Amino acid sequence: MNERGSWHLRAGSVVVAWLAALVVVSLGHRWIPQSGWLLVHVLGLGAVSNAILIWSGHFTDALLRRPAGSRRADTARLLMFNAGAVAVVAGMMSGWWPAVLVGGCVVAVVALWHGTTLLRRLRPALPSRFGHTVRYYVAAAALLPVGAGIGVAMADSRLPSEAHERLILAHAAVNTLGWVGLTVLGTLVTLWPTMLRTRMAKRVEDAARRGLPALLAALTVGVAGAIAGQPVVTAVGVLGYLVAAGYVLEPHLDEIRRKHPGDFATLSVLAGVLWLFGVLVYLTVGLATAATAFEATEVASAVTAALLAGFVAQVLLGALTYLTPVVIGGRAAVQAAMAELERGAPWRLSVANAGLVLCVLPVPSLVRVVCSMLVLVAFASFLPLVVRAVLAARRMRGVPSAPGLREPVPAARRLGIAAAGVGVVVFAAAGGVAADPAAVGISSVGAVEVAETGHTTEIQVRVEDMHFVPNVLDVPAGDRLVIDFVNSGEDRHDLVLANGKRTGRIAPGESAVLDAGVIGGTVDGWCSVAGHRQMGMTLQVRTDGDAPAPHSGHDTATADTVDVSRSLTIDPGPGFVPYDATAPAPRPDHRITLPVSEVEREVAPGITQKLWTFGGTAPGPTLRGRIGDVFEITLVNDGTIGHSIDFHAGALAPDRPMRTIAPGESLVYRFTATRAGMWLYHCSTMPMSVHIANGMFGAVIIDPPELSRVDREYVLVQSELYLGTPGGEVDAAKLAAGTPDLVVFNGYANQYDHAPLQARAGERVRIWVLPAGPDRGTSFHVVGGQFDTVWSEGEYRLRPGTGGAQTLGLFPAQGGFVELEFPEPGRYPFVTHAMTDAEKGAHGVVEVLPRP
User: Is 623 helix (H, G, I), strand (E, B) or coil?
Assistant: First the structure.
């Protein structure tokens, strides 16, 4: 292997590393913050940009017939670029904008350095028939700093939301169609006929030379339209780019007619180009019909996967499949490497492209998830194959030839393998439909054979506060149901029935008529706008006399989430007694008997669960003392399974006091409070998450020294509920998936909305807060209030002065308090400012009365 090839392989390992990181992020995207942004930039900024820096320089040297020279500058550029890319990623993930700024500037500088280097190589070179290819590279390098600058501006949280929406399209266009697109189009001028092993078509060079100005002009129009918030202008720019790209690539059709693509490299690149043209057509139509910058962004978001996976990833993998063996050198080594990289090529191509087609079509979410995993497998298989290729080439180093090492696969067999790949995708899609039939309108619910009455029942359904009214539609069996759906809400909504009938999405104030067909049994309905169903926009159609049936559809949990969302709007009734949130006073004696009992308790209006409790309540009783106090707790297990207890307020070896005891047994847990804090206690029997989630937690307050006097003092312990069957225990599957039905203060959803905490204007109020989890923290906030004192995890973060605080942020099992004075009478809501949790029940009110 020559020195040039050795350098390219070492440099190419950086691309492989970014691709490996892409696979990791893809697999763990559900648990990674900003995973969507990360996926895009690990591929585009990481893998693709490194490949462009490496190979555009290689092609420039080859086309200008100049020696490569020292690789020190190339290596320095790669090191700087990757340092900048890592800084951008780290800054975005941590939310530290200065890191994004510095990283973006480094990326821009390297791009300009790279473009200047290529231009310097072009100018003194002898006239070259392929000099226009280098000009594509120079133009692309000049555009990357623009795209990087827009990206840095977008990352600044101070940027107005409207400006952010406008810059999204501009950023994507400059980086994808400029930096990547121009590089690809310029490279294909010479690389495509070389990959096909055929002579170049006649008009290729002329089309490339004339096409570059047209591409740049179209890109300028599109970006200007995006920044100006004019989707129609952006559509004109995209259409111009589409026409110009077609003009540049059209001569290559003659090469394809003469030599059909047959290996992975050529087919992958061809598929990528076809995806590019498909995306450009979609964007042209979608942007031309978009009314606002926000709608334009939605249009672009719909084809992000197609553009990145279909075009960018496939062109990258195809090019690397061809180029990796080329730089290895030696006939036998090249043959060995190519044989490895061609393994399973028809299957990988068919799975990737068939899966992508289903991912961009309006299919059920489960089908899309399954297909996206298949696409990931097809793409990720390149990584072990490229490693095998390099190792195989090394084994053949020095061997002059290896006849028969790479025998071509017969065409009929390739087609069969490709068909098998498509079959895998179809089978997976069918499995997704089978797992969620209602998502495609297939449902056994409501499909009962029934004699038609010939009568039509008409019912009007309207929207109130993210709920359908009425949400139960009683229809005589055999009647045809016609629903007059009136969107009286403040957002766009639709109505989807489990039997496949649906309306389109309609704007506020509009209406639609839905013919639901003949009704023979219970049929579920919901709004399909993301998140609306989970917020309670559901209904049931049932025949007269039928009892309400469990809702079918997306909900896999044992409890009915429709009842959960509905219960959050229901008053618990006049007999409701809230959990007393008043903070207890410190007491001299801390000898306490704490029985474990299993009790059925209401956790929201109409929803009961069988809880495991300390002292009969969840949370258990709040204990309070001072530094130096000795606590002696006798735990008595009156339950039916083993339990234990762990007091964070004590520091001692856990072996004996925290051991699990069997039903009927007891233990004494003794500790001395040595440090101030808002401490958690909980059951530590495994699985610990299940025991905590089913109610086994409470709080211990150890006052900090010289704690100031306040007029009122409350304790709020936040926790999650993963509901099982009505009256049943925690749903462990929901818990494992991290999908709570309710997030509550002191064990009951929205209880302090119905029974507000009390205060008077001008009084000083202290609120202790502890997120018991098992998994969620809190961002405690009082609407209309400002905290002048914040104490968290053993120290003051804020004391009265000119500053103020709006939230108390705590991770699970952390504790603290805030103090504030309410300036005037009124109702002051308090929430966790993790708003989806607040909407699941972590909400209450402080009712402030006039001064006495």
Answer: strand
- Whose structure tokens read 């939301």? 161
Q: Long-range contacts of range 453-457, CB-CB < 8 Å, 24 or more positions apart? A: 453/477, 453/478, 453/479, 455/479, 455/480, 456/480, 456/481, 456/482, 457/481, 457/482, 457/519
User: How far is the C-alpha of 275 from the C-alpha of 744, rounded, in Å?
Assistant: 48
Distance (Å, whole) CA 423 – CA 409 = 20
Query: Strand pairing partners for 624?
Result: 701
What pLDDT is recorded for position 163? 77
> Which residue has 């062109």 as its token pair?
315
Residue 726 pLDDT exceeds 90: no
- Per the structure block, which two tokens stand in for 668? 């004494």
Q: What mean pLDDT comes out for the span 254-263?
A: 91
H or E element at residue 278: helix 264-289
**Which residues sit opposite 699 in a β-bridge?**
680
Structure pTM?
A: 0.59
pLDDT at 534: 54
What 8-state DSSP symbol labels residue 579? -
- In whole angstroms, how far apart are CA 458 and each of 222, 253, 474, 480, 551? 49, 58, 11, 8, 22
Going edge to edge, which strands form the sheet with 630-637?
Answer: 607-614, 591-604, 630-637, 666-672
Burial (CB count <10 Å: 0-12, 13-18, 19+), residue 500: middle
Q: How far apart are CA 683 and CA 643, in angstroms?
A: 6
Contact 154, 167 (CB under 8 A): yes
CA atoms within 13 A on the CB side of 532: 24
Q: Are 564 and 604 in contact (CB under 8 A)?
A: yes
- CA 15 – CA 49 distance, rounded (Å): 9
Structure-token match 């500790």, residue found: 671
Q: Which residues of 419-450 are buried (b: 16+ CB within 10 A; e: fewer)?
A: eebbebbeebbeebbeebbbbeeebebbeeeb
SS3 520: coil
What does the DSSP assignment read for 643-690? B--EETT--S--TTTT--B-TT-EEEEEEE--S-EEEEEE--SSSHHH
- How many other β-carbons are positioned within 10 Å of the β-carbon of residue 825? 14
Question: Averaged over 190-197, what is the pLDDT?
Answer: 92
Closest CA to 625 of 671, 692, 684, 682: 671
CA distances 775 to 361, 722, 738, Å, are: 35, 11, 8
pLDDT for the residue numbered 444: 44
For residue 74, pLDDT over 60 is answered with: yes
Q: Where are the beta strands (DSSP E) in 86-177?
A: none
Average pLDDT rounded to a whole number, residues 400-418: 68
List residues bridging with 647 in a β-sheet: 681
